[in-house]
Amino acid sequence: MCLKLILISASILSVVAPSSVHERDEVLRIFPRNAEDVRFLTTMDEEQGLSLDFWKFPSGPDNIADVHVQKAHLPLVKDALKRQGIPFNVLVDDVGEALHQHMRTNRMSRALSRMRRDENFDFSVYHTYKEITDHMRHLATNYPDIASIMSVAGTYEGRSIMTIKLGKPFSNGTVKPAFWIDGAIHSREWIVPATIIYAVDRLVRQYGSDPTVTRILDGLDLYVTPVFNVDGYVYTWQSDDTRLWRKNRAPQAGPCVGVDMNRNWDSHWSEGGSSHDPCNWAYHGTAPFSEQETREISTFIWENRRDIRAYIAFHSYSQVWMAPWGHSYNRPPGDAGAQDALGRLAVETIKSVHGVDYVAGRAMETLYQVSGDSQDWTYDKAGIKYSYIAELRDTGRYAFLLPPDQILPTAEEIFPSILTVGEWILDHY
Ligand SMILES: *[C@@H]1O[C@H](CO)[C@@H](O)[C@H](O)[C@H]1NC(C)=O
Ligand SMILES: [Zn+2]
User: Fold this and answer.
1) How far is the centre of ligand 2, averaged over its atoms, from the C-alpha of 55 (Å)?
2) Torsional sign, CA 37, 42, 43, 44
3) How far are the Cα atoms of 195, 283, 418 from residue 424, in angstroms, in the given order?
4) How many angstroms separate the alpha carbon of residue 171 from the centre of ligand 1?
5) Where do the domains of the chain lie, and which CATH numbers do they carry?
6) Ligand 1 atom nearest residue 219's Cα
7) Residue closest by Cα to atom 13 of ligand 1
8) How far apart are CA 124 and CA 408, in angstroms?
9) 293, 301 in Cβ contact below 8 A?
10) Ligand 1 centre and the CA of 222: distance in Å?
């Protein structure tokens, strides 16, 4: 066992860093001072074809923007920022190296996990899509009264998107109120599926022993889709170079691939905070619901809209819990009070676990403008009042490359917030 461990470590560590397409790329943290700075940042990309990858989009003077800049474009971008007088610093000084570190830690933690040969599923490491779906199937097989596997959508590359349905059917056979959760519509946000499958596991195993879990599964049906962007997620596992992939994998006109599926929904589509350029990381697609994944998932939500009382899309990073709207500063009259109250309760619950602060608010206020995002559609079109986007850890230190030792703490603080939402909708209908 020890010798094997040493051999494994040696073989993992001795691998010479492969040259990465992201070698010496940087992530800049930018501090826009006013609306003009924000406009400058958003247009800089489009006008000069820099294929800037905003890890965090520019929104307003109070909000930082993080942007991944390719090595070749660094002098130009830094010069432009300096000339404009926009303050910035370097958040990641070598994206290729950060990726390499992250992937090495990932391989190492998985190798150690396999060697422990614990028969329980290991939630402290990242899992491939196959491992995730195998475990969801395992739960459904072992807890058939409260868990079943379904799929309401397929992907461009022909995969099926797994959804696990949780809940004890009403004995009188009537349809139950429901709660939809999805994650990883942006494939590089690995902490999201890791957090969601932990919650599913806890819900299933604590049914019958934990009163809150029991009440929620008795009163509600939960539809949980741990990985929305399956093709993208599979792609991020291929190599260091693909780890940061965000969009789906559908080829577009021209040289570029993929649509940002959180800009592709049929609500205020293409009205800001998205791009018409297929090479852009926030490309909204050729039309609302041009993508099979968003079209089919939204169809299921639409057909069940009268029963679905809450919708949460999990993303990372930033540690914020956001209510509608994403596309404008307006607070929905009538609903904003209740949406905010539940949002505040959710972040209080999160903080009570490990003391970590998440901010409750609205996308435009706390993060940045998005249009054609899932949350706006589920609220605007499907009429789901409690529609949220929750961005998990961290606030930028590791960003999408969150090390495995933060998986369990994140999952532990998010699980009770899911219970909070479940209880709220049982109490408020
Ligand atoms: C069916 O049972 C549930 C849970 O006990 C109850 O809330 C609901 O009102 C019942 N529906 C009908 C039509 O009896
Ligand atoms: Zn995201």
Assistant:
1) 9
2) positive
3) 21, 35, 10
4) 8
5) 26-93 (3.30.70.340), 122-428 (3.40.630.10)
6) 4
7) 174
8) 6
9) no
10) 17
The protein residue whose alpha carbon is closest to atom 11 in ligand 1 is 174
> Are 359 and 321 in contact, with CB atoms under 8 Å apart?
yes
Give the Cβ contact number of residue 115 at 10 Å: 12
CA of 186 to the centre of ligand 2 (A): 5
Distance between CA atoms of residues 293 and 260, nearest Å: 11
CB 228 within 8 A of CB 186: no
Q: In the annotation, is 348 catalytic?
A: no
Residue nearest to atom 1 of ligand 1 (CA): 172
pLDDT of the residue at 9: 53
Ligand 1 atom 5: residue of nearest CA: 170
Q: Which of 19-28, 63-72, 146-155 has the highest mean pLDDT?
A: 146-155
Residue of 391, 412, 413, 423 marked catalytic: 391
pLDDT score recorded for residue 310: 98
Question: For 133-142, 199-208, 366-375, which range has the lowest pLDDT when averaged over its residues?
Answer: 366-375
State both tokens at 274.
Answer: 């998205």
Average pLDDT over residues 349-366: 89
> Residue 350: is it exposed, middle or buried by C-beta count within 10 angstroms (0-12/13-18/19+)?
buried
Residue owning the nearest CA to atom 9 of ligand 1: 174
Point out the ligand 1 atom lying closest to the alpha carbon of residue 172. Answer: 1
Ligand 1 atom with the shortest distance to the CA of 218:
4
Q: Is 204 helix (H, G, I), strand (E, B) or coil?
A: helix
Residues framing ligand 1 (Cβ under 6 A): 170, 172, 174
Token code pair at residue 320: 């914020």
Q: Is the pLDDT higher at 20 or at 179? A: 179
pLDDT tens-digit readout, 171-208: 999 999 999 999 999 999 999 999 999 999 999 999 99
Percent of the chain with pLDDT over 90: 82
pLDDT over 90 at 46, yes or no: no
* 8 A C-beta contact, residue 194 and residue 136: no
Spatial CB neighbours of 424, under 8 Å, sequence gap ≥ 6: 310, 342, 345, 386
More confident call, 268 vs 49: 268
* Residue of 59, 61, 63, 64 whose CA lies nearest to 368: 59
Ligand 1 centroid to Cα of residue 349, in Å, is 30
